[in-house]
Amino acid sequence: MPSRMAIVLAAGKGTRMNSEIPKVLHPVCGRPMIHFVLDAIQQCGVERTIVVVGYRADSVRAELSARENIDFTTQEQQMGTGHAVQMCRSHLDQHDGAVLIVTGDSPLIQVASVTVLLETYDQVEPACILGTARKQNPSGLGRIQRDQNGDFAAIVEEKDTTEEQRAITEVNLSTYLFNCAQLRFALDHLSNDNQQGEYYITDCPGILKQTGNDVRAMDRLQPCEALSINTPQELLLVEEEMRKMGYPDFSGD
Question: E strands within the chain?
Fold first, then answer.
């Protein structure tokens, strides 16, 4: 079986958290949230994980120092999620196999969901698989546009949606599987020609689709995986959901 590598995006400060603590180190159920993400990745059979650090990078490195099979790369300037993955280029150049890309602020990532994506990738080896979910209130999330055959066409960010597209309930949850060579190609063709002047990983599936590659959107993620953490209020919501789901409480450790 080809090797599997993961990239965890963990460079942001998390301005809306109103704290000097890096966002991924904020505790949920008494434990820095990024550990739940790394645990899930490990359980999915990923051999090597690259954590992209930036804001207070030394704090994140120190927190994760006891974990095995983790390397770090630094995003000195916050220039978007695509730029963060570009900072992993030296690791990508040495890899041949699947690359899982997730965010460090989504502790409700589910092993079962990611395993389905990995199994599908191993069977058909597409250029890219996006893990998607159905959400009755998709406000704030990118919509998955499909063509007349039901195949992936594009990710449409909410600010760019038409009224018809806003009614789409299938959403992008920032869980990607790429063929490493195809990911390198897409990263080489990323543009920052947008209002923010940043490079976005969400553009990579579209680049691959436009060049005739097999890009698939799989509605296999669970609704809880749409709960990421950007504010203290969202942290409380995620923690409440995790307690309902029976996650262990590390508060007493």
Answer: 3-10, 27-28, 31-32, 48-53, 70-74, 97-103, 128-134, 143-146, 152-156, 170-179, 215-219
Whether 56 sits among the annotated catalytic residues: the reply is: no
CATH, domain 3-131+174-216+235-244, list 1.10.1040.10, 3.30.450.40, 1.10.10.10, 3.90.550.10: 3.90.550.10
Q: Which residue ranges make up each domain of the chain?
A: 3-131+174-216+235-244
Take residue 167 and report the two structure tokens written for it: 């009614």
What distance in Å separates the CA atoms of residue 76 and residue 161, rounded to the nearest whole number?
Answer: 32
pLDDT, tens only, 2-33: 589 999 999 999 999 999 999 999 999 999 99
pLDDT tens string 40-89 = 999 999 999 999 999 999 999 999 999 999 999 999 999 999 999 999 99
Catalytic hit among 4, 16, 166, 184: 16
